[in-house]
Amino acid sequence: MATEVRTDIKDRVALLTVSNPERRNAMNLELSGKLVEALHSAVADEGVGAVVITGEPPAFCAGGDLSELQDADPATLRTVYAGFLEVANCPLPTIAAVNGAAVGAGLNLALACDVRLAGPKAKFDTRFMPLGLHPGGGYTWMVNRAVGPQGAAAMTLFGDVLDAEEAERVGLVWRRYDDVVAAALEMAGRAAAAPRDLEMTTKATMRVTAGMTSHSDATEIEVRAQAASVHSAEFQQRVAALQAQISKR
Fold first, then answer.
1. Fewer CB within a 10 Å sphere, N or C end of the chain?
2. Alpha-carbon distance 97 to 191, whole Å?
3. Average pLDDT over the chain, rounded to whole?
4. Distance (Å, rounded) from C-alpha 86 to C-alpha 208?
């Protein structure tokens, strides 16, 4: 069976499905490269306003390909990381529709997205320590920000495996859904309905202000971008449409 990343675009949302069925979508060098290509294409497409990432059922992503990792040097590891680092750096809003096991590098892939949603069969398993493998790809940085120091330690050092319910409880995922892909597409559609440039600028602003400790500094970052949006044609048109609706009531 082919190793691929399938892209389906509908209503301005790109659904990317990572598929390596023989290895439960393990993130090998080939799949990582194809994920980079798929994301580049989605971002380059002006008709795409948001991205959803999921896995070929029944898994989300079963980690790195151990046969490749056994002989990996830093250059090889960086190539494996490239796929989910591309997700992390994506300027468009991203959602992980976690439909099955997200293990090791697969957990990295989910963490790299802006929002994680979980299906009934979702499972979040670091599995680095039992394999005698140090975490990589920025995992320790991402997991700390997702669940805090105690949660990061519980998952990483003590090997706590979370199902969908527990992941929602500790804040690793935003919500659980019976049909997680459909829910992710609906949520992504709301982002894609907004002006594309505005979504990208706002996401970039959120990344900058997330590292700030001063409210006033964050306000100064926002004021220039908000002033620019006020004078945009999209804002003027949408305000006029809203005013027209209100006047008819």
1. C
2. 15
3. 95
4. 18
DSSP H stretches of helix in 100-232:
105-111, 128-131, 139-156, 164-170, 180-192, 196-210, 215-230
pLDDT tens, residue by residue, 70-103: 888 999 999 989 999 999 999 999 999 999 999 9
Sheet holding 101-103, edge to edge: 101-103, 123-125, 162-163
Distance CA 186, CA 192 (A): 10
CA distance 45 to 54: 20
231 CA to centre of own chain = 31
Candidates 33, 208, 181, 39; CA nearest to 98 is: 181
Count of beta carbons in the 10 Å neighbourhood of residue 13: 26
For the residues of 223-244, what is the DSSP string, one character each? HHHHHHHHTSHHHHHHHHHHHH
Q: Are residues 24 and 62 in contact, defined by beta-carbon separation less than 8 angstroms?
A: yes
Question: Which are the contacts of 119, defined by CB distance < 8 A and separation ≥ 6?
Answer: 97, 98, 99, 100, 164, 176, 177, 178, 179, 180, 181
Phi, psi of 179 (to 5 degrees): -115, 90
* pLDDT tens track for 95-144: 999 999 999 999 999 999 999 999 999 999 999 999 999 999 999 999 99
- Alpha-carbon 34 to chain mean position: 16
Residue type, 140: T
User: Which residue type does 122 have?
Assistant: A
In this prediction the pTM is 0.95
Query: Between the CA atoms of 36, 102, 139 and 110, what dihedral angle is there, to the nearest 10 degrees?
Result: 50
And the tokens for 158? 């003590």
Q: Which two tokens stand for residue 120?
A: 């009934």
Q: Residue 37 CB: number of other CB atoms within 10 A?
A: 14
